[in-house]
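Thread: Modeling a multi-component assembly for a lab meeting

Hi all, long-time lurker, first post. My supervisor asked me to bring a structural picture of a complex we are working on to next week's group meeting, and I have zero experience with this. I have the sequence lines for every component (519 residues in total). Could someone generate the structure of the whole assembly? Inputs are pasted exactly as I received them:
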Amino acid sequence: MDWLAVVMHGTLAGGGYALFAIGLSLAYGVMRLVNIAHGDFIVLAAYIALVIAVASGLHPLLALPIVAAIMFGLGYLLQRTVLNRVLGPDILPPLLVTFGLAIILQNGLLEVFSADARVLPAGTLATDSVSLGGGLAVGLLPLATFMTAVACTLGLSWLFRYTRLGVAFRATSDDPHTAQLVGIKDKHIYALAMGIAFAVMAVGGVFMGMRASFTPDLGPSYLIYSFEAVVIGGVGSIWGTLAGAILLGVAQGVGYSFGPGWGILTGHIVFLLVLLFRPAGLFSRSQP
Amino acid sequence: MLEVNELHVFYGDFQALFGIDFRIEAGQTVSIIGANGAGKSTFLKTLCGQLRPRSGSILFEGRPIDDRPPSTIAGLGISMVPEGRRLFPSLSVEENILSGRFSGRNGPWTLERVYRLFPALQLHRNAPAMTLSGGQQQMAAIGRALMANPRLLICDEISLGLAPAVIKDIYAALPQLLQEGVALILVEQDVNTALSVSDYAYCFMHGRVSLQGQPGTLSKTEISDAYFGIQ
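Re: Modeling a multi-component assembly
Sure thing. I ran the full set together rather than chain by chain. Output:
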C-alpha cells in the first residue's frame, strides 16, 4: 500500500470536510449555537447552484458567488428572524428549532427536486488530475477544494484577528452582556456570523456537488462530518477545525485502504477516541 | 441630564427597587453607596438597559430610555465601567479599549488620550487583557468606557479588590474626565473614598433611597444608619 498516496488523498478529502465544518465552527464559536440543519443547508446550497447552473449555463464555480450571496442573506435572515429568538441560557430551543428546519428542508427538497441523485456539471474540472511526480497524481477538483478550504480558513482567521467585525465577534463570544454595554448590537453581529457561516457552507455545497452526486437526504451525514471535524479540532478554533477535518479525511482514507466498508467507520472511531482522551479537541486553546 | 422617577424593578416576583428617584446634572459627580444587596447594581443595570423597570421613568437628556436595549443606550452616551471590570479575555488591551468605539460616538477621547491618562496601559497595549494587574485592568475598563465619549459615565465598584495606592491613582484621574461636562455616577462600598469626590450622594438600603444630600451635610451617624439600618 502506498501510504503517501493514502495520506495525500485523505488530506484533500479533509479539505471538503473543512468547508462543511467551518460554518458550524463559526456559529458555535460566536454564539454557542449548534445548527442541526447545518448539513441540510449545505445540500440546499448545492441545489441552488444546480438551479442557477442549469438556468444560466454558468459553470458552478462562476455561479458560486451568487450562491454564496444568496446563502449569506438566508443565514442573516434566519438568525435575525428565528434563531436570535431562541438563543439563551437553555441550549435546547435552538437544537429543537434547527432540528425542525432540517426536517422541513429535507422534505421540501425532496418535493421540489425528487430523490434522484444530481450532480453539478463541472466539465473537465471534475476529471482532470495533476501529477505531483514520483508516480503520484491528485485530482484537480480535490486539490482546488483543499486550497479553497485553506483560503477560507486564512480569510476567516484574518477577519477575526484584524478587523473591527472580528473584534466584535470575539467580544460578543467572550461576554455578550458586556458587549452590548459597549454598544455592540449583538443581534446584528450574530446574524452576520450566521451569514458568513452560510456563505462558507455554500462554498462547501458547491464543491461537494461538483465532486459527487447529491440527494435531498444527505444533510445529516454532512452534519456529522462537520461536527466531528469541529470536535476533533477543538471547539472555537478555526485552524483547529481545518486540522480536525484533515485528520478525519486521513482517518477515512486509511480506513478505505482496508476495505470499502471501513472508511467512514474509521473516521467515527477516530472521533470517538478524541472524545475519549481529549474531549476538548486536539487543538483547543483551553484544555479543561 | 438624567432624571429617574418612581422606578420599580423586579426580578420575577422579587421586587428589588421600590420607587427610586434620582437626578444628576452635567459635570456633577454623584455617588451611590449602600451595603451588598441594597439595590445599587440593579439600579445601574436598569439605567444601562440590561433590566426593564416594571414602572417609573428614566429620562436621559429629556428622552425616555427605559425601553431601549443596552447597545442603543451606549450610543446615546451612557457608558458603564462594570463591576469586576469585565474586560474581553480574547481581546488585547488595546482592542479592549478600542471596543468602546462600537458605541459609534465621536468626541474628545482618543486612544492617545487614554494612554496619556493611564500610561501603564500603553506599555502593555498588545498583551492579552487578562495578563494585566487588577489596577491596570480597571484602567483599561475605564479607558474602554471613555472611548465611547460618554455624557454620563457610571463606575460600578471601581475600587473593589484594588490596593489603596492604586485606588488613589484611579481616583486622581477622575477630575480630568469631568472637564467636558461629563456627569459621573460612582457606586462604592468604600463610603469615604466616594463621598470625598462627590457633589451629591444617595444611600440605598433594601431597594429604597434611605438618605440623600451633599456629602458635607451628612453626619457619620446618619450615613451609618442609612447604610446598615438603625440598630
